Structure formats: C-alpha cells, structure tokens
C-alpha cells in the first residue's frame, strides 16, 4: 500500500513543483518559519541576482573577479599540464573566463549544474571562444555524489567553486560538501574556491540591504514566485526585507518580516503570522582565513594558498586533497 494513501494529512504532489510546494508548506509550518534559499533563482530571481552583483554596496563579485585576475598565474602554476577543471554549479561564466585566460594548458572544462538547458547554451558559446578546450557539461546536483563522464577518472582534476556559494551552507553541511567534492575529484586534486570574509557589520549589512532596493526585491521575489507557481495568495507588500549580521553565528541572515498579523494561503493551506514574525530566507556565512582552513581540514583538504584583495574583503583559497 502506498503510504501516502493511508496518511490523513494532505501530501504535496511528487512533481518538480511538488518539491517546491512541500518545502514551502514545511517551511511556513515550522517555527521559526524558514524557506530554502535555493528557490530564489527562478528567471526573475536570477536576473535580480545579476543586478545585485554590480551594485556599489555588493563587493563580493567584483572583488573576487579582481583576485582571480591578479592571481590567475599563481593559480595556473598549481594545476598540472592537461588537467581538467570541474566547476560545481555554473552560474554565469564570467569568473571562469577570467581564470581560463591564465590556463592555456587546461584540457577540459566540466560545468556541473542541475539546469541542462542552461549548461548546453553556455557550453556552446564557450566552445566558440576557446576552440582548444573540450567542454563537457554534466547535468547533476553537485550537493550529492555524482559520476564524471567516462575517461576523466585517471585525468588530473581541479575543482572550481567561486562566488562564496559555500557560505549558503551550514558549516557542517559545507564540510560535508567539501568532502563530496574531494571524493569526486580524487586524491591529489586542487580545489579553488571563493569565500567571503568576516568584516565590519555596516559593510556586510549594506551589501545585503542596498540603497536601490534590489536585494529587497530579490528577497521578496520568493513570495511572488510562490504566488506564481504554487497558487499562493500572499501580499508581498505586507512583508519587509531585513538583512542582519548575526555575529555569534558569523553569518548574514535575510528575513521577510510580516508587517502585520495576518494569515496567508498557499495551495489550500493557511499559515498565520504575528506582527513582526519573520520568514528566515537565507544564511550567508562569513569566514576568517583560518576559520575556513579549519573547516576545509575537516573534509580532508589542506590549504595550499589563500589570496585576498588589498582591503581584506574577500578570499580565494587553493586547497589540495
Ligand atoms: C550567491 C549565495 C553568494 O550570499 O552573497 C546576494 C546570494 N543574497 N545577496 C550571497 C545573495 C543576497 C549570494 N550568494
């Protein structure tokens, strides 16, 4: 007997949007309320994130690009001739392109992403721009172990994980993820990753609550997305964007705070809010250089080098397993 047939509570349908609905029902039914940050990135959210990356207050993207430019030759020196580069989650190829300029000896580039269509488009333009490079997209969820295409098992491998995406994971989850990367890349591999640094509260909070309101729109888009895709009836104007540095946990938290007491409905279920009650929508962990080295060590990665910009805003780590 299908256990769902004997369960009296309504079950979310098991489709791609069914997972979204299940996560939304779970998250809004929990206390404190929370929603997974991965749902920010529908088409509208991805466009808003692109806008965030060029905001004056949002230092991570431009700072990381600067470090990759300046340290490209040093990074290249760490990778053996003929190595293949695996990128975990391939957003825009801007950062990769900065790195590729310095890596003429690279034999192949393997972007790993859940969106196959996006991957194939990007692969096409990259092949045009770097004719000597084999581009082999891998459609997979990089947070779980997956297999590389045949023929890459005995090649020298390097991993690339830019953007401080690692900061979206709880430290224990981040260590587990680094261990997954290590198993995929194998012994002797080099991993290059971007990690945002702990800094002044005012600088951090401005980066996640910009004057133009783009980050607020990015956060609130989650409610619009629920309305669009899940038959939600939430008034986004009844929620306020809030970004705060939780110093004890060393993370920026984003919240959507209910401006009034209210009940919202999503696909037939109701959720009530007190005035001022929040939905926790994102954590973005910030590390010290040594703090991140210690985390990496738990997953069997040794620090080879770590580079920062002159103002110490952001770091790029090279690790070896
Ligand atoms: C894409 C996860 C690195 O945490 O800085 C930007 C996402 N959220 N502004 C970050 C984000 C709000 C971003 N990451």
From TrEMBL:
Domain Histidine-specific methyltransferase SAM-dependent per the UniProt entry, residue ranges: 22-320
Keywords: Methyltransferase, Transferase
Domain of life of the native organism: Bacteria
InterPro entries: EgtD, EgtD_Methyltrsf_superfamily, MeTrfase_dom, MeTrfase_EgtD-like, SAM-dependent_MTases_sf
GO molecular function: methyltransferase activity
Keyword Iron-sulfur part of the UniProt annotation: no
UniProt GO BP: methylation
Name this protein carries in UniProt: Dimethylhistidine N-methyltransferase
Source organism (scientific name): Methylorubrum thiocyanatum
């Amino acid at each position: 007997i299908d256990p769902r047939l004997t369960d009296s509570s309504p079950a979310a349908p098991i489709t791609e949007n069914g997972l979204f609905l299940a996560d939304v029902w779970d998250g809004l039914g929990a206390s404190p309320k929370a929603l997974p940050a991965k749902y920010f990135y529908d088409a509208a959210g991805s466009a808003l994130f692109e806008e965030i990356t060029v905001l004056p207050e949002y230092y991570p993207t431009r700072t990381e690009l600067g470090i990759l430019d300046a340290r490209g030759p040093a990074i290249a020196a760490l990778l053996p001739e003929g190595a293949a580069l695996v990128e975990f989650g391939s957003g825009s190829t801007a950062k990769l392109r900065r790195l590729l300029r310095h890596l003429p000896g690279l034999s192949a580039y393997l972007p790993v992403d859940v969106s196959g269509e996006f991957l194939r488009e990007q692969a096409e333009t990259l092949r045009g721009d770097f004719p000597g490079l084999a581009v082999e997209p891998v459609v997979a969820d990089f947070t779980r172990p997956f297999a590389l295409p045949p023929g890459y098992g005995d090649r020298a491998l390097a991993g690339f994980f830019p953007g401080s995406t690692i900061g979206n994971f709880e430290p224990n989850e981040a260590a587990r993820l680094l261990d997954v990367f290590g198993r995929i890349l194998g012994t002797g591999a080099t991993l290059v990753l971007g990690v945002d640094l702990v800094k002044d509260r005012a600088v951090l909070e401005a980066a996640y609550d910009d004057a133009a309101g783009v980050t607020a729109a990015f956060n609130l888009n989650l409610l619009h997305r629920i309305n669009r895709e899940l038959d939600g009836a939430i008034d986004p104007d009844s929620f306020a964007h809030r970004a705060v540095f939780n110093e004890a946990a060393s993370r920026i938290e984003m919240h959507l705070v209910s401006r009034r007491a209210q009940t919202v409905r999503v696909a037939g279920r109701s959720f009530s809010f007190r005035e001022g009650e929040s939905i926790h929508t994102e954590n973005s962990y910030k590390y010290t250089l040594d703090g991140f080295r210690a985390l990496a060590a738990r997953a069997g990665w040794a620090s080879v080098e770590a580079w920062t910009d002159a103002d110490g805003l952001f770091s790029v780590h090279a690790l070896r397993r």
